Amino acid sequence: MANQLRVGFIGLGIMGQSMARNLLQAGFSVTVWNRTESKMKVVQDWGATPAASPQAVARKSDVVITIVGDTPDVEAVITGDEGVLAGAKPGLILVDMSTISPDATRQLAEQASAQGVKMLDAPVSGGDIGAREGTLSIMVGGEKDVLEKVRPLFEAMGKNIVHCGPNGAGQTVKACNQIMCGLNLLGMVEALSFAKKAGVDLEKMIQVTTQGAAGSWALANLGPRVVKGDLDPGFSVRFQQKDLRIVLQEAEQLELPLLGTAAVNQLLRSVQAQGGSEDGTHALIRVMEQLGNFSIIPDNE
Ligand code: NAP
């Protein structure tokens, strides 16, 4: 029964392309739409069917997944003139896997519900590697029985699937995730800077510390990229700043000071001021190089 669900997939970026491929490999029939048409070609070669708009995707699907960019992008593909809701019949399940504002998610879920469409927020963690390998953590907000209906889809894309609460709870947990990602990132670049200045081998430092109490995803996955001078995303500074903006706006509403998160946000602003918005988040090393007057990235040496 499960992989008889007809799946619609909107947004074939770094994450979406790999996630759609994993759904196809698990045997689901997948209809896709992407704003830039050329990106549909590759998933077509893997067996997906292209559609002309998000509206057309919804007409052909039992479940529609969106993974695009920021809050206004999700609103555009869901509520726009040719958006998902324009093509949705009652009973459609809409799963947004982008990282966006919890407040906006709750509003979208209400709008969808008025049309008989059940929505889940299901943002992910695990990066481009997790998307490729089908090992994403998926944090789900919405009704639990709706999650159970689409669980086989989530199992094709991820490993750690947790129902976090009602609509918006998935995005709130993702905001917690981004707080920790930001601070682990800062810890990683500070440790690499210290190692470089003190003259120890960077690769050995990473090798031994990833296995101990200091280990983090940032250290294990981004540390080696820094040492190689590879600042490609992965996850771009622009997107990390989007996520930290969501966190800091929510924290303001909660009257909660978040000193570390605000510091990471300001340091990444410096990366952006120097033209690094589309680099991976580990380009934070460039600010450390300037602050400490040293070079790790080979191009700078
Ligand atoms: P990406 O490579 O930049 O891809 C973004 C996708 O969204 C593209 O397909 C883009 O279409 C589409 N898009 C953006 N704005 C749109 C709009 N207004 N209307 C229609 N389509 C639009 O981004 P990504 O890295 O896959 O990230 C996607 C989402 O996943 C984001 O919310 C991000 O925060 C989240 N996320 C990313 C990672 C990661 O490591 N990359 C990890 C966890 C979560 P075009 O092809 O036309 O540009």
TrEMBL record:
Q: Which GO terms describe its biological process?
A: organic acid catabolic process
Q: Does the keyword Transferase apply?
A: no
The record's keywords, sorted A to Z, are:
NAD, Oxidoreductase
Q: Name one GO molecular function term.
A: NADP binding
Q: Where is the 6-phosphogluconate dehydrogenase NADP-binding domain?
A: 6-165
Q: Which residues form a coiled coil?
A: none
- Presence of the UniProt keyword Transit peptide in the record: no
Q: Which SUPFAM superfamilies match?
A: 6-phosphogluconate dehydrogenase C-terminal domain-like, NAD(P)-binding Rossmann-fold domains
UniProt domain 3-hydroxyisobutyrate dehydrogenase-like NAD-binding: residue ranges: 168-287
Question: Catalytic center at which residues?
Answer: 174
Q: Which PANTHER family match?
A: 3-HYDROXYISOBUTYRATE DEHYDROGENASE-LIKE 1, MITOCHONDRIAL-RELATED (PTHR43060:SF15)
Query: Its family?
Result: Belongs to the HIBADH-related family.
Name under which the protein is recorded: 3-hydroxyisobutyrate dehydrogenase
Gene source species:
Marininema halotolerans
